[in-house]
Design brief:
46% helix; three-stranded antiparallel sheet; alpha/beta; 294 residues; five-stranded mixed sheet
Length: 294
């Protein structure tokens, strides 16, 4: 005796017909008929009086209906409740300060338009902190530059990006080919504070070459850095993903792929962890959004 057979029987008893039950269950009429016949064979009694229209349950059918209807309804309610809980589960995402204001913001905008009732928790942090949050289970996923091979994590690359020199319009560096770190170190710098990946790479190259340099201003994010650069206080180096088309009205942008490595950004998840359906949907929206943009 299977649940699908009991569901077909209870539905036919409720609506008073096999064809009506098939329509409500989105099944073929022969399928519902087969379900009911299998029940009758197992019980050893007719469940419907088919000589009348609409059909009615026999005494045996009435006894089975009294027992089966609460069971079928309870299981259907359980499935619906479980599905609702799954769909409303919290999605937790961590990413870098640069990506949270640009790459992730575009994804969140599209995702919440499609799924307005889904709950999202977003954290901006340094890369090492994001890795730790994914490792501990505090975050479902991280959107970060490639962290290197690891047995702990899975990484799915999404897009590549380069670093760029950011200078105010009219700056002398915009009139020459930037081919060395010496050219950059000559000018006052406006950089992110803390151990960001771009700053670490840049300062490592300066020190390796024995160059002296001045960090005139330290700020938390590239968006505010771009505004200070536009004022003429200095130049900066940052990821291309933090540059929007409108920025080029006030800033000069120079590709530094010849000096600093091109990075691959993607989704970091803990290996073996099962993500919720909404989290999987969020990842798919992120892939679709970034693919269309690029």
């Amino acid at each position: 005796m299977e649940l699908r057979e009991l569901r077909s029987f209870c539905t036919a008893a409720k609506v008073g017909g096999i064809s009506k039950a098939a329509s409500e269950l989105d099944l073929g009429q022969p399928t519902v008929t087969t379900h009911i016949r299998k029940l009758e064979e197992e019980i050893g009694a007719k469940l419907f009086d088919r000589s009348r229209r609409p059909i009615r349950v026999t005494p045996s059918g009435a006894a089975l209906l009294e027992l089966a209807a609460p069971l079928v309804e309870g299981i259907d309610d359980l499935v619906e409740s479980t599905t609702q809980v799954e769909q409303e589960s919290l999605i937790t995402v961590a990413t870098t300060n640069d990506m949270v204001a640009h790459t992730l913001l575009r994804t969140v905008t599209v995702f919440l338009h499609r799924h307005p009732h889904t709950r999202l928790r977003v954290r901006a942090a340094y890369m090492d902190e994001i890795v730790d949050m994914v490792r501990s289970g505090e975050m479902d996923l991280g959107l970060i530059p490639y962290p290197g091979r690891s047995e702990e994590f899975d990484f799915a690359g999404l897009f590549a990006y380069e670093r760029v020199l950011i200078a105010p319009l009219g700056h002398p560096l915009l009139n020459e080919d930037v081919v060395s770190f010496e050219q950059i170190a000559e000018w006052p710098l406006i950089l992110r504070g803390g151990m960001t990946l771009t700053r670490s790479m840049l300062e490592s190259e300066f020190k390796r070459r024995g160059l002296s340099y001045e960090v005139l201003v330290e700020l938390d994010g590239m968006d505010i850095i771009k505004r200070y650069v536009a004022l003429g206080m200095g130049i900066s180096v940052g990821p291309r993903l933090a540059i929007e088309p409108e920025d080029e009205r006030a800033l000069g942008i120079v590709n530094l792929a010849n000096l600093l490595p091109i990075e691959q950004a993607g989704i970091l998840t803990l290996r073996g962890r099962t993500l919720s359906t909404p989290a999987e949907m969020f990842i798919q929206v992120m892939r679709d959004t970034l693919l269309r943009r690029r």
